[in-house]
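Re: that backbone. Tokens:
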């Protein structure tokens, strides 16, 4: 009985074990089918990388059958695209018992390459020892190709965007540079003696040039916005100043049409906010200009209201209302489309490109705001810009910076290095700066600017950015690399008004920048402020005087000084420069007439007339005017007599100036602290170099200039310096006796 029980128990145990075995086999077969049918590649290798198992997906992908794969080393599939360090890191990871994840490139049986994303893990036995490695991999070849195609497309798009940005920057430079010269010369011409007809022509030319500048700016701004390359500033500013500037621009236009311009500011308007005052002003100027353009009678009102204030932020509504022609609902709906106006009759009647409002809306979006429009035909329109700004605390005024004294030109006594390659822009900038009292030296590129800086201690540098050879950015970096010029004010001049360019300018070490066309008053204010911060002390106020001691025949000294707002010393300096410089022009005028070149002669006569009358040399200016009329209206009949009158007035001017006390005596007497023995030695060294046509004359001249310090002799050295700069050593030597005589006179 007991034996039967034991037999039954054994049979039950055997049946149970067989059942478990069959279950295990089913699980193994299920697992094997899962591995075989898995869309992922599964590979099992030994500790040395020898393949022990591959699934069907591996075979399909690589082209190796299971029989061909098993027994091979997994390293045989390497493509060669990865270095030893890559595989070293992989094996070190899995041998340390960790899981490795990543992508690699392998080679198929037929030689084709393919990409796999893999997870490789070690397999442990009961004692925790690694027995083999299992890799589960996914074919990502197509994904990698797509990513590469996307990367290539992105690089192409970036390159196209950069090319477009470069094109816009270049076009901005190429267009604004000559326009800068046009507007600059118009500004300078307005300060010369003009007939009423010439003044009228000049005013119309100025209006047309300013209009052209506006159109060009609109087109360039729109292109930058389209390219996503228009960046905004975030700087503290006073909204009242922006509104004051706007009112100043619009008031003249409104008065010309007989319109009333009103500005209403909310008493709670914050003193300072953080934003872009330039772009805010641009949008409001567009609103205001349109309001005046489309309003024949009545008024234009500019209003700023505080809508909301909370947590250091303020929401403002800038509103422009007019009593003009108004708009229909359909016209309002299409108002912000680029190159679109209300209708064709509007374009014919009022002009415009149709870009202003399109740009304004996009600027509003960039600033995080919105534009509101309400209008009724015949009753006027309301344009509003709603923006939110962070408020900022008002900065305390620095105080203590001395301004130039009364009667002193705003840049009197400072020396400016102008780095500019364009001849016209050189002339414009030089005239603006010299009229403000500055002494200007010109360099044609960045390399020459560095050379000039080594020769003389300038107070500021005005640096064009796009110059041949070494440009402005590279030159600025070189300047800042020298500790001597760490605090030297450097102002960039560029036609590119983008924030990216501003960042490049400041990153190069420049102090500030101006955008072409240059606004003369802003240039002078900016230079004056920067130089004050750098510690320059402007001359004190000079005592008022009716006129210099003595008289100059044929010159209205008092009238010219009052009109030009010059002190006696500065005025006489300019008059002497004029007399010295025009002597050669008068000679050239005579030569042109002698060879029958009436066009050149007419140009010389016109130039002489304007310059003379501007400085109050009425007798010489009148003689030049008569010669100009003779050449222009009388066909040149009688020009010898008229030319002789010009020469006679020129001689009278030179003789009268010679009788006045020399500037050396007035500015510095025998007691001037100069190292005379060293100066005389440097003069002799320079004379020898000039006599031998030796290029070291430039260096000798720099050493002499340094010895002369701030004495009037340094300014008298300028004509010789100009000829040496042009390697005209013979003509420079011709000036030597006269300069030596001035040195002896100053020594006493």
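Recovered sequence:
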């Amino acid at each position: 009985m007991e034996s039967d029980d034991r037999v039954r128990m054994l049979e039950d145990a055997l049946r149970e074990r067989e059942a478990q075995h069959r279950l295990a086999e089913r699980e193994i077969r299920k697992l094997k089918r899962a591995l075989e049918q898995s869309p992922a590649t599964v590979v099992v290798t030994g500790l040395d990388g020898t393949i022990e198992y591959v699934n069907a997906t591996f075979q399909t992908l690589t082209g190796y059958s299971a029989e061909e794969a098993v027994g091979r080393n997994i390293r045989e599939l390497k493509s060669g695209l990865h270095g030893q360090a890559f595989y070293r890191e992989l094996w070190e990871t899995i041998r340390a018992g960790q899981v490795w994840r990543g992508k690699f490139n392998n080679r198929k049986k037929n030689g084709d390459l393919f990409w796999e994303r893999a997870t490789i893990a070690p397999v442990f036995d009961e004692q925790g020892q690694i027995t083999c490695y299992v890799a589960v991999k996914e074919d990502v070849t197509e994904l990698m190709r797509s990513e590469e195609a996307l990367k290539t497309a992105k690089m192409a798009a970036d390159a196209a965007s950069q090319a477009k940005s470069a094109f816009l920057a270049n076009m901005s430079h190429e267009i604004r540079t000559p326009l800068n010269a046009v507007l600059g010369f118009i500004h300078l011409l307005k300060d010369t003696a003009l007939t009423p007809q010439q003044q009228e022509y000049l005013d119309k030319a100025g209006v047309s040039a300013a209009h052209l500048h506006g159109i060009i700016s609109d087109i360039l701004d729109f292109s930058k916005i389209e390219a996503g390359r228009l960046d905004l500033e975030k700087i503290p500013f006073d909204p009242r100043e922006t509104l004051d500037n706007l009112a100043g621009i619009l008031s003249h236009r409104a008065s010309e049409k007989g319109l009333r311009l009103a500005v209403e500011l909310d008493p709670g308007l914050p003193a300072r906010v953080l934003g872009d005052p330039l772009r805010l002003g641009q949008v409001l100027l567009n609103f205001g200009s349109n309001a005046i353009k489309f309003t024949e009678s009545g008024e234009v009102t500019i209003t700023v209201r505080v809508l909301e204030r909370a947590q250091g932020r303020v929401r403002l509504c800038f509103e422009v209302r007019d009593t003009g022609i108004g708009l229909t609902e359909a016209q309002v709906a299409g108002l912000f489309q680029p190159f679109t106006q209300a209708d064709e009759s509007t374009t014919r009647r009022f002009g415009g490109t149709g870009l202003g409002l399109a740009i304004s809306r996009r600027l509003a979006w960039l600033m995080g705001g919105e534009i509101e429009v309400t209008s009724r035909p015949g009753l006027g329109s309301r344009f509003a810009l709603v923006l939110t700004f962070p408020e900022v605390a008002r900065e305390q005024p620095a105080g203590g910076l001395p301004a130039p004294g009364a009667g002193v030109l705003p840049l009197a006594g400072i020396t400016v290095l102008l780095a500019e390659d364009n001849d016209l822009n050189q002339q414009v900038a030089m005239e603006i700066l010299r009229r403000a009292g500055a002494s200007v030296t010109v360099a044609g590129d960045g390399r020459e600017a560095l050379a000039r800086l080594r020769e003389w201690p300038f107070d500021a540098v005005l640096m064009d950015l796009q110059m041949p050879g070494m440009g402005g950015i590279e030159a600025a970096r070189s300047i800042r690399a020298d500790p001597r010029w760490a605090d030297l004010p450097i102002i960039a001049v560029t036609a590119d008004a983008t924030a990216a360019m501003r960042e490049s300018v400041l990153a190069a070490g420049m102090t500030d920048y101006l955008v072409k066309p240059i606004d003369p008053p802003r240039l002078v204010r900016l230079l004056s402020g920067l130089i004050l911060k750098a510690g320059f002390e402007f001359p004190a106020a000079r005592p008022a005087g009716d006129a210099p001691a003595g008289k100059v025949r044929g010159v209205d000294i008092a009238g010219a000084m009052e009109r030009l707002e010059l002190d006696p010393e500065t005025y006489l300096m300019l008059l002497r420069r004029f007399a010295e410089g025009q002597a050669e022009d008068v000679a050239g005028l005579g030569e042109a007439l002698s060879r029958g070149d009436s066009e050149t002669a007419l140009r010389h006569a016109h130039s002489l007339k304007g310059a003379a009358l501007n400085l109050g040399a009425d007798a010489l200016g009148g003689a030049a005017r008569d010669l100009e009329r003779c050449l222009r209206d009388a066909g040149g009949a009688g020009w010898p007599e008229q030319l002789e009158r010009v020469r006679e007035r020129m001689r009278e001017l030179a003789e009268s100036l010679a009788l006045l006390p020399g500037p050396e005596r007035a500015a510095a007497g025998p007691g001037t602290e100069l190292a005379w023995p060293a100066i005389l030695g440097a003069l002799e060294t320079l004379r020898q170099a000039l006599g031998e046509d030796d290029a070291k004359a430039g260096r000798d001249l720099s050493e002499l200039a340094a010895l002369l310090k701030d004495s009037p002799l340094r300014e008298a050295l300028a004509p010789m310096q100009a000829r040496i700069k042009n390697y005209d050593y013979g003509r420079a030597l011709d000036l030597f006796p006269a300069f030596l005589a001035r040195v002896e006179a100053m020594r006493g």
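DSSP finds 28 helices and 17 strands in the chain. Confidence is low (pLDDT under 50) at residues 342-352, 396-403, 538-547, 663-672.
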